[in-house]
Amino acid sequence: MAIFANMGTEDPTAAPGRPARVNVFVSYTAADKAWATWVAWVLEDEGRTVAIEAWDAPVGTNLVSWIDQQMTHAERTVAICSQAYFASHWRTPEWTTALTGQTLIPLWVEDCTAPRMLAAIVHSDLHGIDETTARRRLLEALGLTATPRASDGFPGGPTSEKPPFPGAVPGKGPSITGFWRGMVSRARRHQRWAIGALSVTLVAVVIIVSLKSCESEDPESTATAPTSSAPAMLGQCEVVTIMTGQEGSPYNNYGDTLAGIIESEYSGTTVNVTPTRGSAQNLDALRDPNARCTLSIAQFTTAVDARYGAGQFLNAPIDRLRTVGPLWFDLLQLIVRADSDITTAEQLCSAGGTIATGLQTSGTAQIGDVLFRQIRNAVGPDCQLSPVPMSLSAGLAELGAGNVQAVLWSGGAPTSEIRQEATQGAGIRLLPLSTYRDAMQDEWDGFYRHEAGDDFVPGQIYTAEQIRPQDYPGAGPTATVGIPNGIVGADFTDPDLVGYTTRVLQEHRGEFERAIWPDETERHFWPIRRTVGTSPVYCFVPLHPAAKNFYEQSNISPRCSVPTSAASPGASEQPGQAGPVN
Predict the structure, then answer these.
(1) Phi and psi of 212, rounded to 5°?
(2) Quick one: which of 60, 149, 329, 552 is 20 to 30 A from 516 by CA?
(3) Which helix (H) or strand (E) covers residue 189, if one does?
(4) What tens digit of pLDDT does each residue of 22-39 get?
(5) What is the pLDDT of residues 375-410, one digit of tens each?
(6) Which residues, listed in sequence order, are joined to residue 489 by a DSSP beta bridge?
(7) Separation CA 347–CA 317 (nearest Å)
(8) pTM tops 0.85
């Protein structure tokens, strides 16, 4: 269950399909409903608008989707923490998502054992105190009131009613030494603010001096002439935003690499690398026509779903999406503990089948649905799989604790968190998945032949790939399925930004390879010509005009016009696409 507090004036329930941005999401379980509604009441009493499931969610609401949409638009997540809350698999994705996005505010409503991931996170206790104190702590946790900077007195024993100021000398004013010590202490506490304020002050001084200089040279002039020393800016983008993935994931590393290259050449452009919950969230950011300087790293099958309004984007297509260029592959990784008796994916059907399967706005969730359908089809109606959405770090923690039987991840190999579990944790084993590739491809062809109609272009979407022994020591080589990924924009994305990024993807390809394989100089992505020139994803989601122009200069064009005979069932394979060139 959940409550959403809007710290502004918008109505978060005004448009269910596109919820207004909220400041606070309150996550709780049924056992703590009284605490949750009290929190909602306090926020409303403070003049905030609150949306609560018990009051506002009509009968028939898809609560999983509703909660996910509201969390996407929230700035902070308040978790009502109790033993029941931490025992709930349904609440785990909420607090782990907020923790990953650094938006979590945990409130303890009873003494309980925190998961190890929360051990170092500061929390606020609301239990065992009176209501006035609890209310004050709640408002302080939300930043709605300042924490009193006061002492209860000297804790070591009796003292005078009012202890003297430590820096003062009796009969004199405050000492200079005490004054400067206080200033240093305040500066340390507010270092970031002080640096920012000082920077603003210096900029203001420079501007004033510059204006005065111009006035002295030309008293009648009202504008300053441009100077040749102005920092170079990439197109019209003073700030570029790159939507990536979970902190430390391959997508996040790709974003850091691109940001470093852009900022090294364009000192007038700042690049924000934004950690996210995954591909669907990244693509959703491209709905806004004002996001002209936003690029999203995404799994390309999710991008196709988004453009056609399928899967996670059912009835909410983003038809202005445009591809920029390829990176590599997301590899399907189905992970069990090294000491597990499970050796095949189909055995999960009879072993309880609880699988941590990625956050709901991730590419892992999208491709997980596809994979699990094939597993169920292979086993039959007796297959009992129970996917539970949660972040990769939370999934691995639950796997180690024995609370889930497997973790599904769709991403580059190696992924640092999985590698850490393989080398420092209980050890892992990867289940082979390549036998499901043909069924996944057949499902794709059947679905998009219907959805795209005459625009359907046959071609291989899923590839047979290999996870290597060096990726996860002790796990051994594993045959699996690869899904292409890359960078996506919209038709309104700044053309200079797109053109430059396209060139970077080709000319700096080695730097992106090192972002995922820092110690393997002989391992490479597929060449641009092989991906753009053969994959049908660039037909389902067309190239941005600036990218198309760049590739055409190198005689690279997607094969989007095919003979009628090539569109028949069974024609999805194309020569030369069996596996990556390494």
Answers:
(1) -65, -40
(2) 552
(3) helix 176-189
(4) 578 889 888 888 898 888
(5) 999 999 989 898 988 889 889 988 998 889 999 999
(6) 322
(7) 36
(8) no
